[in-house]
Amino acid sequence: MKHHYGRRTAVAAAVPAALGHPQGVARVQSVLRCALVVLLVVEASVFPDRHNVAAGNALIAAYGVWSVLRLRAVWREQTHPRLIWAVLIVDLAVLVGLVVLTRGFPVPETSLALIDDAFFVVAMMASFQLQPRTTIALMTLTASVYLAAATGAGAGPRSLLAALMHTLFLVTVGMACALTSWVHRARVQTINTLVKDRSQLLIEVLNVEERERSTLAEALHDNALQSVLAARQDIEDARAATSPAESLERAERTLTDAARQMRSVAAELHPAVLENLGLAGAVRAAAHAAAERGAFSVDVQCKEGLHHPQQQLVFTAARELLTNVVKHAAAQHVTVHLTGHAGSILLEITDDGRGITHSAVQAAPAAGHIGLASQRIRIENADGTLTLTPATPHGTRAVLELPPPAL
């Protein structure tokens, strides 16, 4: 089977890299930073009675200009994503400097100091990084620097107690932001995995016609065509023989076998095979056809009368699993068991071949072998499971389970 690596790369490139993308995170942080500047300006206007007013206002103005320039650079993608954490350190330094300059620590008697509340915004901006450990580290640094600055400001015991409580709230909010970052990171990774799986499934759909043609060509070449060529040789021998009866009989038997093989291939590939044979008959026919192609013995036990809305999925998965046995297992014997109970379906295919490792299964889609992965996606979408485990003493055991259909 041919694998379109170029097309696979193109589809993979279409996976939304915007999920947790550093550039998007930087833009969100820049918007929050500008909002923080607005809050600082409003507070400086509403509560002008502060220490070092001129120096504090100058620092706010410089911080505002820098924030706007940062927003402009980020929006034009003129900044490196690795600068995000360095920028957060700048935010922390500016806020600490502003609090120290204006002595904006909480004073229980007045409760007018609000500048230190801006430290909570740093926690929120850090959470967008989707890196919980780094978020915790930054918030630990923020709380430590804030508490050290408050202690060194020479405030009274009540103010220090209020600063300590403010630090505890800051740590709590930082932990909450880290947990939020962890949850969103897990969700982003899950979504990204699902998108990649769906992209691989799309490739499988695009290649399904070529795969079926390749399967048909292999089946005809390895079985029916070889029988026809053997029959032709028997006929040529009959022409040259003085007693052609024996050669003609061999040719007749060979052509009869070729006809049977072609009917088997047609029955396996025809979309109406389930309607004509039922699920048990279709799986049985696929197993015997695979046994002929792979030159192994097969033991088939299929419960008759099984019906399920997803029986086409079961049959397709059975063909894919048997094809893998033919191509890769080098098996001598294969067992196929199809059972069901109360509307559920259980398919077990076990071979005594060379087996397959978990790492090989995981690496197969990256190498372009996505037939088994696409089957697993389809089965999981139908609320079923497909598991591969080592067989005893060697080989592979594949188990497909589908639950009863929903009422």
Order of helices and strands: HHHHHHHHHEHEEHHEE
The quaternary organization reads as single chain
Portion of residues in beta strands equals 5-15%
Whole-number count of domains: 2
Termini separation comes to: 40 Å
Radius of gyration: 35 Å
**What can be said about the biggest beta sheet?**
5 strands, mixed
What ranges have pLDDT less than 50 throughout 5 or more consecutive residues? 1-20, 106-112
Shape: elongated
> Portion of residues in helices?
55-70%
Total strands: the figure is 5
Give the rounded overall mean pLDDT: 77
- Give the count of helical stretches: 12
Strand arrangement in the largest pleated sheet: 1-2-3-5-4
Transmembrane segments: 83-105, 135-155, 161-183
Pfam family, one: HATPase_c
Keywords: Cell membrane, Kinase, Membrane, Transferase, Transmembrane, Transmembrane helix, Two-component regulatory system
Domain Histidine kinase/HSP90-like ATPase: 309-406
